[in-house]
Amino acid sequence: MSKISVVPYGPQHPVLPEPVHLDLVLQDEKIVSAIPSIGFIHRGLEKLVEKRDYKEMVFVAERICGICSFGHGMGYCEAVENVMKVEVPDRAKYLRTIFQEMSRLHSHTLWLGLAADAFGYESLFMQTWRIREKILDMLEMATGGRVIFSIVDVGGLRKDVPDEMLAEFAKRLKDLREDYNRITAAFLEDDAVKSRLCGVGVLTIEQANDLGCCGPFLRASGVRRDSRMTDYEAYAKLDFEPVVSHDGDSYARCVVRIKEIYQSIDLIEQAIAQIPAGDVCTPVKGMPDGEYLARVEQPRGEALYYVKGNGTKNLERFRVRTPTFANIPGLVEVLKGQDFADVGTLILTIDPCISCTER
Amino acid sequence: MKMSKSPWLLHYDASSCNGCDIEVLASTTPVYDVERFGVINTGNPKHADILVVTGGVNYQNKPVLEQLYAQMPDPKVVVAAGICACDGGVFKDCYNILGGIDKVIPVDVYAPGCAVRPECLIDAVVKAIAILDEKRARMKAENKA
Lengths: 359, 145
Known about the structure:
CATH topology of chain A: Cytochrome-c3 Hydrogenase, chain B
Helix content of chain B: 25-40%
Number of strands of chain A: 8
Order of helices and strands of chain B: EHEEHEHEH
CATH architecture of chain A: Orthogonal Bundle
Number of helices of chain A: 12
Largest interface: A-B, 45 and 37 residues
Distance between the termini of chain B: 21 Å
Number of strands of chain B: 5
CATH topology of chain B: Rossmann fold
Strand order of the largest sheet of chain A: 1-2-3
Helix content of chain A: 40-55%
Number of domains of chain B: 1
Order of helices and strands of chain A: EEEHHHHEEHHHHHEEEHHH
CATH architecture of chain B: 3-Layer(aba) Sandwich
Strand order of the largest sheet of chain B: 2-1-3-4-5
Oligomer: heterodimer
Structural class of chain B: alpha/beta
Largest sheet of chain A: 3 strands, antiparallel
CATH class of chain A: Mainly Alpha
Shape of chain A: globular
Number of helices of chain B: 4
Distance between the termini of chain A: 42 Å
Strand content of chain B: 15-25%
CATH superfamily of chain A: Cytochrome-c3 Hydrogenase, chain B
């Protein structure tokens, strides 16, 4: 029986792009338990509803996280629209779906790059991020922003995307598919990568359900749950199946995300083919009065947006439950019994977004 | 030998929304590629010459930021990346935000934007390199005297 030692991990650490702190209790090289502490990026933006009116809050909601910023803005708008009984035009619904899937595309690509970096594949990281820039170019073309778009608004979208541009997107997505075919082989077939991922950090289906995990982390453990199935925006009219894998290890999480990349491309193509003509914004009158809870599937999992209005221009309460927050108990469970050297990749496999978590 | 030929970056996220962080990373990857100028993103404060900080600093990460700054060897330059790091930005009125990293450590270059664009960030790093050389020359002169 060897001595127990505690190793602090983070908040500033080469493998972590964002600050999260873990106290790792080690026995030799094996992890006995992990104690997370968060709060390094807590800003307290929910409280800002008292100072900003419900329309200005769209900008704040977008800045919950810079990676899934569009989805956060959309989730907030959806909640407010439901409180105010605003019907969003069909074209705006489709465009929102397209932007949301593009965000997923760039977020998963970003994750692939960071994962490659974590297991030491520097040039694979660079190649992955080269592809990501192509998606950012498309988003910039349509919205004007690279990471924060500010295009979503209560009632629809702030501006339309012309059909010619959508046709151009469809063309570029075809090329993107080729690009992805080239790099994903490195993640799925390379022996060295497999040895870092296969069988490491297994989360069983029971654990995943009990701990309330969500997103690709949950689906990699064999649970078929995806909030896009709840048919918000234009998802009801698009044909898709949640991506599920059954092994629950790091490799399965990687596979799920890669398959979701292709799924997103497919969804965008479907949406571009079906998109109707028309307005993109319904004028909004009055003040929000009532409450609503919106569910949105973000790249990292299900996010909840609770909004409560009292008939004044400022909301009474705004609450966000983000996916990484739900996944941290799962991460702590996954870390137990693993090698110390695998901690970096294991933290990355849940695709942590700390600034979402702490808001 | 001029240090400015290959300055190493240390990036720390002091309560930003991630938008600026991924732009900092994006500037090291192929399209913008600051690595061709010898700029390398390191994870170790003791190897770093330029500290790039994003976000408006909250009470919990204030000591972390102070420590990182103290651990960097002289001469060192600080770049505030993004409007939050400059003055708090959209989160200025939040109860937990100090509002700008210059409340905690001295800042040499401010790069505004929400999120900061890679072009702007690269420009800021180039300005920081000039300041780094200046500081180094001053240090040398002081040591001789």
